[in-house]
Amino acid sequence: MKAIQLNGFGDVSNFSLSHLDPPVIKNDEVLIQIKAAAFNPIDYQMRLGLRESRLMRSPILGRELSGVVLQVGTDVIGVKPGDEVMALAGSRGSNGSYAELMALNYRMIGSKPRHINFEEAAAIPSSGLTAWHSFTRMQAEVSDSIFINGAAGGVGRFLIKLLKANGVSNIVATAGSGESIAALQSLGLGSGQIINYNQPGLKDLLIAANHGKRFDYAVDLVGGTIAETTADVLRMNGNYVDVTFLGTVVTREILFDKGANILNIAAYAFAIENNLTWYGDTLNHLAQLIEAHKIDAPAVNVIGNLTVETAQEAHRLMEANRIYGKKLVMSVTA
C-alpha cells in the first residue's frame, strides 16, 4: 500500500511517500480501504514532537478516515465487506490514515451517512466525537448562555449544531477572519453573536454580547493566552469546558478563584479505558442525526490526493490557522 510517512520530528520536509506491505487484521479487526482522510491539529503537534506525539504508534500520521470494508476478522459482529464506514482510529489503527489501508477494531467504526460523500464523512469522526463528548458532559439547559472560543474550527461548528438542535441558542463565539465569521453565520449565529477576537477590549465585548452578564459555560478550543479571557468571562461557579489542555497558569488561577467546574474533554479517554464501543455507537448516532437532517455534515476543503505535497500543505494551513471554517481533507483512493 502507499502511505505518507513521517521520518522524524520537525518541519514538513520530513514527510515521504512509501510503499508498504498491507496490514494483517486480527480476529476483532476489519481491513478498511481508505477513501478519504481528514487532517487535525493534533497531526502537526505530533509532527513537531509535542506532548501529543506520545500517542503515536506509527510513523504514518492521521487519525480519522472514511472508506470501505474489504475484509473482516472471525470475531467481527455486524460489519461485512462492502460496508461504507467512518472512524476515529486514534492510535488504535495498524497505522495512521495517510495511507491506502488500515486495520482497526470493528467496535470503533460507524456507518457512513448514506447521502454524503466520503470526503464529508472523513470530516465527521474527530470533530463530531469531541463535540458530542463536550455536549453530553455539559448538559446545557435552553436558558444557559454559552461562550465558545475558537468556534469556527471543526469541533466548535459541530458543537454549535448540536446545541442549536437541542434548543440552546444563547451562544456567543469568536472568529478572526471574514471567512470564519461567514462560516459561523452559516450555522445561524447572528452578527451580535460573533465577536472578532482581534478587536481591543475583547472581554468587555463578550460580556456585552451576553447582555452584560458573564457566561454559564465557557468552551476553550484554542488555548494560550486567549484562554485567560475565556476563563475571565465565565460566571462564578460556572462551567469551563477544556478541549485543549493548552490553557496558561493564569487561566487555571482565574478558574480556581471562580470556583469553576472544569470539564476536561478528551475523546481518546474512552480508548484508554478500552471502551471502544463508545466510538462506533456514537458515530452511528451522529450518522443518524445527519441522515435525519437534524444536523448538517461538515463543510470540507479537499486539498489533494495521497501525496507528500498534500500533507505538507495541510500542515502549513493548520499551523497558520488558515482553515477558515472548513475541514481539510484529502482523497485517498478513487
Please explain how this structure is put together.
The longest helix is centred in the last third of the chain and has 15 residues, at 277-291. This protein has helices at residues 41-47, 118-122, 125-138, 154-165, 178-185, 202-209, 226-232, 249-257, 269-272, 277-291, 308-319; strands at 2-6, 15-19, 29-38, 64-72, 84-88, 101-105, 109-111, 146-149, 171-175, 194-196, 215-220, 234-242, 261-264, 300-304, 327-331. The chain is globular and about 60 Å long. The chain has 334 residues and is of the alpha/beta class. Helix content is 30%, strand content 25%. Helix 7 (226-232) packs parallel to helix 8.
Q: Architecture of the largest domain, according to CATH?
A: Alpha-Beta Complex
How far apart lie the N and C ends?
14 Å
Largest sheet: 7 strands, mixed
Helicity range: 25-40%
Share in β-strands: 15-25%
Count of runs of 4 or more consecutive helical residues: 11
What's the Cα radius of gyration?
Answer: 20 Å
The number of distinct β-strands equals 15
Q: Give the helix/strand class.
A: alpha/beta
The low-confidence runs, each spanning 5 or more residues with pLDDT under 50, are: none
Topology-level CATH name of the largest domain: Quinone Oxidoreductase, Chain A, domain 1
Mean pLDDT: 94
CATH class of the largest domain: Alpha Beta
Helix-strand string: EEEHEEEEHHEHEHEHEHEHEHHEHE
